Amino acid sequence: MEGSVKSKEHTQEDYGLRPEASQFPMMLVLSFVYPCNALCPHCPYTNSQIRKEYRDAPYMLEDTFKRIADESGPHGAYLRISGGGEPMLHPMGTELLVYAKSIGCKIGLITNGSLFDEDNSRALLEAGVDMIEFSVDACDEATYSVVRKGLEWSILVENVKRMLALRDEIKSTSKIVASCVNQEGVDVDEVERFWVDEIGIDYMIKRKYLTWGVNTTLTGEKSADPIAYLNTDEVPCPFIFERLNIDSRGNVMVCGYDISANTSMGNINTESISDIWHGEGFAFYRDKHLNGDGKDIPLCSGCPDWKYRSWQHNYWKVVKNAEEVRVKKVSALGEHDDFQAQED
Q1: How many helices (H) and strands (E) in the chain?
Q2: pTM over 0.85
């Protein structure tokens, strides 16, 4: 299999629900908004009609979000704020994220970084939003104008710098990272060097160019790193054992590949997340995958992204690595402050 050597780094001896997910999902990926102020060519929402299908529910309602947060908070679960558009376009975006943090949720915000000012940046940092991820995909203005069509490079750089400076000023525990899709025309190593070494983010996430069931015809042409992580004939998909996806209507999809919400595992407006997580729907998918029969499921057999999932190199590794860097920076800043105090 293509990439079979790589697969060893991404598998593990035992599969199934991770201990942290035995009672409740470790992560809830929320389609918080569908509108966007960019037309990124690698985005499945740019290349589909999905946003039009959500014209009746462009933003997750306050009540829906708070139902999710209220149940997730006691478990310390991650709410990963992403979905079909730019989260900071949500009319109550900052307010709702601050609320979720106040009741115990962990927050991973994925943003294109175009809509931050000092007020909303400070509010998120003071709340201790766990990780703010800037989708950058470039290290220069010319490339950025192509891969992040509709956005301004100078605004991104200014907003990231401000976020980092404010974090130092108020001594926030938020991790600040960036991500880059490994696509043709983009040098991911140069992107990493610029954002880590010159700008000072904590960590750079290098992502595969995924299809999400929409970009299928484009992936082969645009991906700069098609090497598979997993042998899908042998290794179950990790997503169904750690996370679930919820759209703006409160509908739960079986996984992130189903961004069109063709599956419905339940709706959080009428059922508890815990009941859905332990319900027959997820049990069916997990049993099939654990028995080596995942490809008997039409959705899974047709998923071109399963081979790019990983049991080891995943979001949890990013969180760990970014936190280690952040702590080192805090320590270095403390030593600098002590030195300055002595000098004064």
Answers
A1: 13, 9
A2: yes
